[in-house]
Design brief:
Rossmann fold; four-stranded parallel sheet; about 45% helix; globular; signal
């Protein structure tokens, strides 16, 4: 009887010790953060939701993966909000430019409130794709210049590795003087830096480059409509697909990809500007794209 009592007590202790491991592991939760309810934002959120649900529903958190919430911040305002939190979470920024993302995360880190892990799919085109587009349009290697402000100076090493002539604009620098310094290049690669490309300066830059017979590879479809030669651009679904791929890779392996430019894109060309520059745009330019 004494032996039986000891045996039952041992079994009871074993069952109690094993009980926590028998509970089903809780999966990652995800949340899409937005700062407005515009039609475009709703379209982004609805498309993202459909892509993320299948990724997170079967997931079980491994012991090494303690983070419990995965946020997708749509736009700068949503990123600022989540970056100010002190949370054991993962954040992926979407539809925010590289320089704004870097500024927000740097400020959050300085204030001690940055997320445990973060990454981004930037809003602007990848410079490497833009340079490839310029080569396709001109049908030869081209001389490319770029003007960087303080917020885009981090791109200088990569651009110079691609043989781009880079000028950095200091405080108070005259944009016309800088444009004259790179007037001998075939193409100006425009990057979305508000210290250089503002609503007031873009028209002046486009007129100056036009006089120099330079094509401008812009950073948005609107800039091409305003007079830039061409650009690659990403649709909502292109960015969302990349966000989902990053989330899926994290769920599968626990490693978060670094911040990156859009992987998927299409091309828009200003045919009138191309004719003025004596450039014949072929089908290989119009069809230059990468789809999910």
């Amino acid at each position: 009887m004494t032996f039986l009592a000891c045996l039952l007590a041992a079994l009871s202790l074993t069952a109690q010790a094993a009980k926590p491991t028998q509970q089903p592991a809780q999966g990652f939760r995800f949340q899409i953060l937005t700062a407005d309810d515009s039609t475009v934002t709703q379209r982004i959120a609805e498309d993202l939701y459909k892509r993320l649900v299948p990724i997170f529903s079967p997931f079980r958190t491994e012991l090494a993966q303690r983070r419990r919430m995965f946020y997708v911040a749509v736009g700068p305002a949503a990123l600022r909000e989540v970056a100010s939190r002190r949370c054991d979470c993962v954040v992926i920024s979407a539809f925010t430019s590289s320089q704004v993302y870097r500024a927000i995360m740097a400020k959050a880190a300085h204030g001690g409130a940055s997320p445990v892990a973060s990454t981004a799919v930037y809003a602007e085109p990848a410079p490497t794709d833009q340079l490839r587009l310029a080569t396709l349009i001109y049908r030869r290697p081209v001389r490319v210049g770029a003007i960087l402000g303080a917020d885009t100076a981090f791109l200088r090493p990569a651009l110079e590795a691609d043989k781009v002539a880079v000028l950095e604009a200091g405080d108070g620098d005259d944009i016309n003087r800088l444009l004259n310094q790179i007037a001998q290049t075939d193409v100006l690669l425009a990057l979305p830096d508000s210290t250089i490309y503002s609503t007031e300066s873009i028209r002046n830059i486009l007129l100056s480059t036009y006089r120099h017979k330079q094509g401008v590879i812009g950073f948005s479809g609107d800039m091409v409509k305003a007079g830039a030669l061409a650009t690659t651009y990403s649709e909502i679904e292109d960015i969302d697909a990349q966000v989902a791929e990053i989330a899926n890779a994290y769920v599968a392996g626990g490693e978060l990809a670094p911040p990156q430019f859009p992987r998927y894109f299409r091309t828009i060309v200003n045919e009138g500007v191309a004719r003025s520059l004596d450039l014949k745009v072929g089908d290989e330019v119009r069809s230059f794209s990468r789809r999910p």
